[in-house]
Amino acid sequence: MQLTRIPGHEGAYRSFERSLCEQLSTMIAQDATSFQPNQKIKVRISGDGAKFSRTSSFVLLSYAILMPVGRYLSGIGNHTIAVVKGAEDYDTISTAFAATFQEIDGLQQLGFVAVNGVSYNIELFFSSDMKFMLTMLGLNAANSIYACPKCTVHRDCRWDVSKPESYYSTTMARTLVTLRRAFASHGRTAAVHQGSVNCPLTAIPVDHMMIDELHLFLRIFDVMLRNLIKMSEPHTQQLVAYIRSCGVSFNIWESESSDGKVEWTSLTGEAKKKVLKLLPSKMKDIPLPNAFLDDVVQLWKDFEVLYNLLSSETPPPNAADDIHLKAKRWIQLFLRIKSDGHQKKFVTPYFHVMVYHVPDAIRQFGNIKQFSCQGVEKHNDDSKRNYFSSNRWDAPAEIMLAEHRLELLQQYAREKRHYTKHAAAYWHEGGMQEMRSQMRETLKY
């Protein structure tokens, strides 16, 4: 693998087109029937910042081929294009990845790659969390006035779900043309530039810049959990006990800083999904204000139904319309709860995207699960392990070289033994957590 140093930065990159052709060649050899010259092959490009140690932060660009044989939801199915040591901000990303973005734009314009003498049409997408997405589009931060990457909705209007679904995807929709025009007017009022403080970094169309369903779930769940903790005061330890009974490790404590704020355990994505599924049935026993106990329980139940629908790989034919309607009702229920955490100002860009832009993406591309950054997060974990196994003399290059060696040896990887989970209560209803607690009690004696 040929690596090129990034001038002015501690980083390295490789040719995106060459790597893509190599991966396609390998996949075609494994399953030639899945690749036809006249079909479009979807390729998802992703970017993410990752903190590998207390003093070392990296930004990684990777891609995945959205075919079943590509295993794009696993770490091995995501392939690094470039790595740079530095902060996840516009200056670092725009300068360090300039050559990579130029190559991506060339492929975007060309529309195909040649593999073993055969041309295959490709369709490029970009998917990431909200912070990286806004940076790629040259927009301001997620807490700014115009923070939606898809449209120019004002921060004070995100709560209003009375508008028809097409309202934000027509006259208020963002495009590369409107983004560049708005950036040219930067320096005037926010109402003029509408959040465009920098120039977009790639030529991938805005409708192909996909919001990650995983981060959508994580950030909305965080809002719900924060509100639940606040409403359960001063009985938070009872809430802790019920969350632990869902089979996850969880605790709430007062911050050691002078402000005395409450902090709690940061749950993993799988743990959050488990809590979302199991906790609503236990909420009746949590001492919450009776005035809106039923609404809180219903809010959690409805969000589980909504998320399962929008994250499905095979959504039903009417899924887009159903998601739009359910998401509207969910936000209306969210605002009906009269507590500090359910005010209009807490309706984040993810809420708005879920109502107005996720249905449009499902209608256009079939599902949004294929654009999930689940594999990207696993890929970051693999890169972090490669970082700690290196001598860190030239960490970005060593991360990419270690990944390349694993790709070459992938055909010799040990296949995992198939295991069927028979005791559902053990895995999903807190049985595993209970057994571990019993083991800890036994070890005390």
Distance between the termini: 56 Å
Using only C-alpha atoms, the radius of gyration works out to 23 Å
Question: Largest sheet, if any?
Answer: 8 strands, mixed
Number of DSSP helical runs: 17
Describe the structure.
The N and C termini lie far apart (56 Å). The chain is globular and about 70 Å long. The chain is of the alpha+beta class and 445 residues long. The model has no long low-confidence stretch (mean pLDDT 89). The chain contains 17 helices and 10 strands.
Brief characterization of the structure:
By secondary structure, this protein is of the alpha+beta class. It is built from 17 helices and 10 strands. The chain has helices at 16-30, 90-96, 98-110, 130-136, 176-184, 190-193, 213-232, 236-244, 269-278, 293-310, 319-336, 349-356, 358-365, 374-388, 395-408, 424-428, 431-443; strands at 4-5, 11-13, 40-51, 57-65, 79-85, 112-115, 118-128, 209-211, 252-254, 262-264.
Write the layout of secondary structure elements.
Blueprint: E1 4-5, E2 11-13, H1 16-30, E3 40-51, E4 57-65, E5 79-85, H2 90-96, H3 98-110, E6 112-115, E7 118-128, H4 130-136, H5 176-184, H6 190-193, E8 209-211, H7 213-232, H8 236-244, E9 252-254, E10 262-264, H9 269-278, H10 293-310, H11 319-336, H12 349-356, H13 358-365, H14 374-388, H15 395-408, H16 424-428, H17 431-443
Parallel strand pairs: 3-7, 7-8
Antiparallel strand pairs: 1-2, 2-5, 3-4, 4-5, 6-7, 9-10
Helix pairs in contact: 7-10, 10-11, 11-12, 11-13, 14-15
